[in-house]
Amino acid sequence: MLKLDAFALITRTFPGRMCFINGIFERMKKASVLVVLFFSVIRVLAQSGPEKHIFPLRLDERKISITQLQPMINEMGANRIVGLGEGTHGTKEFNDLRISLIKELIENKGFRIICFENAFGDAYYFNEIVNSSGSIKEGMKKYLLSLWQNEEIETLFEWIREYNRSHSEKVSVSGMDFNYLANAAGIIINESKKANLYPLASLANDLYREALQYDAAWDAQMKGLDRSRWGGQLKSIRSILQQIDSSIKVDKLPVSELLQTAVLSVRAWSTGERGRDRSMALMAVQIAKNSKMIIWAHSVHLALKSPFKDNSVGGCGGYIKQEVPEYYSLGMGTAAGKYGGFDDRFDTRTNVMKRFVLPDVKHPSWDEYFFNMKLPAFFADLRNAEKGTRSLPLRLIGYGPPQRISYSDAIKLEELFDGYIFISKTNAPGYFR
C-alpha cells in the first residue's frame, strides 16, 4: 500500500473537521504535487538522451489516469499493431493501466483484436465464451494461463462482452503462443470437417491424440517422463504436422484462414524455445491481418530487439515490425513492492499463484537508475528521444520466485521500446485462487 502524505494523513485523522478545511488541504495537496512534478521535470529536462523525454505521471489511488498519456495514445492510434508490455507477469498496476489503454484504443482508435501471450487454440475457444452468456471466470480458468486469471483482467473481458453486444464491429480475443496444442488440433479437425476434407480431418485426429498427451505432460511440469518414449512422441507430432502441411500444399486444399492459423500455431511450437519470439511474431501478424491489434505480453517479448547479445530470448516486437512497420512497443517496469508468480517451472492453466516481494534492484541497472529519480511514476517517450549513450542492464521478472529474477546485458533502452512507463512501487494482482 502506498504511504499517505502529510496532508492526506491529517484529513483522514480528523474527518469531522469543517468541509472548508478539507478543501484547503486538498488544494494544498494538489499544489504540492504540482511543485514536485515541476522540479522533477526541470531536473530530467536538464539531462541528455532519453532522459530528456521523461514526463512524470500522477498516481491517483495507485492508478494512472490515461488523460496524462494522450499524446502517447494518439501515436499508438496511428499504428496497426500496439504491444502493451509488462515488466513482470504479475503486477496489478500494469494490468489496470493497460486495461484503460485498451478501452481507449478500442473506443477511439479502431482496434478490434486483443492478442494475449496465451496458446492460440485455447484463446480461440475462450473468445467464444466471451461472446456468449457463459461464465467468463470459468472460461478463464479453463482456457487461460493462471497468470491471466485475476480480477482485473476479468473486468476487461466483461467490458468486451458488453461492448460487443452493442457494436456491430466486434472485439475478439486471441493468442499468439503455443504451449498447449490440443485445442489448436481441435480447430483443424472441425474446420476440415466443415469443408468436407475428411482425410485431413483424420490426420488432425491423430495430431489431437498426440497433443492431448503433450498437454498433459506440460500440466505435470514434464515430470516422470520416459525420455526415450517422449522423444518418439515429439517426433510423431512433427511427422503428423508435416503430413498436414504437405496435404494442404500439394493437394491445394481449400482450407479456411482459421485452419491455416491453427496449423501455423503447431508449426510455431515445433521451432522450440529458441525460435519462440520469431514464431510468436508470425502468429501475431497472421492473426492481425488487416485489422488493428493490441498485444498483451511481457515487455521483453514485445521489445524491438532482444536485450541479450546472443538473442536468447525477447525481441518478438522487432520481428513484428519487420512485417508490419506500423508497430508501437510500450514497455513497463517497477522497482519495489510485490508481484504475482509461482514456483513451477512451466506456465499452465493450473499454477498456484503466490505473491512475492520484489528484491532490491541491483547496481548498475535501468531499474536502479529510474528508482533513484524519486518519481512515483513516469513515461519516457523513447521514439522521439535523442539517442543516448547510457547502456545498462534491465531487470527481467517473469513469473518465477525472486531467486529466478535475472538481468539482461547492458543495452540502450531506446533500442528496446518506443515508450516506457515506470511505476516505482507496485502490487500483485487479485488472483482467483
Automatic annotation (TrEMBL):
InterPro entries: Emycin_Estase, Hydrolase/PRTase-associated. CDD domains: Ere-like. GO terms for biological process: response to antibiotic. This is Erythromycin esterase. It comes from the Bacteria. The lineage of its organism: Bacteria, Pseudomonadati, Bacteroidota, Chitinophagia, Chitinophagales.
